[in-house]
Write a structure and sequence with these properties.
With 221 residues, the chain is mainly α. The chain has helices at residues 3-17, 24-27, 44-71, 76-109, 115-132, 137-152, 158-178, 187-209. The chain contains eight helices and no strands.
């Protein structure tokens, strides 16, 4: 296995690993409710969701680090930007999961004056962290990496083209949500986010099973 194949395999597996957080949509349902902090019940679903999001954050950085030695040959500034964007996304994810674990801590310590308001504030912080991270930064990632892959022809061009479509769709949906035109959790927002998710999953599958195409930028590696 040559160096480009090792990098593509690592990047592909990391991309596929970023999808492990899908169950958090259900796992976090209770913690987002105002009554969670004063109610009885297991904290395990929230803690499992936090672990899954930690994996996603680290895997996201892994995708950028694995691809950097290859795509920097096409455009170093954009390659560095992709690493920085992924790192920022991961850091914001960590801010969100710290907020959720703080709610769990409040619940375990017992109720008191202002505990409900504090929990609601932390839940709002998680929602905004998610909104400015997972709901927006994938568009930046898509444009940066998509343009590098499109120019280098390391993958079939329909793949990076999908990243451009997904980025545009996500930004339009994000702006509509920010301005209050649509709800963050709605069928419209879900459909708008689908192309960028398909792009990342398809790229993960392609890099894992097929690797990079022959290209002048990886000749001799």
């Amino acid at each position: 296995m040559n160096a480009p194949r090792k990098y593509s395999l690592a990047a592909g597996l990391f991309y596929l690993l970023t999808f492990v957080s899908i169950p958090t949509l259900a796992l976090y349902r209770a913690v987002r409710e105002p009554t969670f902090v004063t109610s009885a019940g297991p904290d395990a679903p929230v803690m499992l969701g936090v672990v899954l999001e930690m994996i996603v954050a680290l895997a996201g950085i892994g995708t950028a680090v694995a691809l950097y030695p290859i795509v920097r040959r096409q455009g170093e500034a954009r390659a560095v930007g992709f690493v920085a964007s992924r790192t920022l996304e991961a850091a914001t994810i960590y801010v969100g999961i710290v907020s959720l674990m703080s709610i769990v801590t409040l619940r375990q310590s017992g109720t008191g004056a202002g505990v409900v308001a504090a929990a609601q504030g932390l839940a709002a912080q998680y929602r905004w962290s998610f909104f400015f991270a997972q709901s927006f930064i994938p568009a930046i990632n898509g444009v940066l990496l998509g343009s590098l892959l499109y120019q280098s022809r390391l993958v079939p061009r329909w793949l990076p083209t999908l990243s451009f479509v997904g980025a545009a769709s996500l930004v339009v949906s994000w702006l509509a949500t920010f301005l209050g035109v649509i709800d963050a959790i709605s069928p419209v927002a879900a459909v708008a986010a689908l192309p960028i998710a398909v792009w990342e999953f398809s790229l993960g599958v392609y890099l894992t099973f097929w690797g990079f195409r022959a290209s002048p930028i990886i000749a001799g590696l």
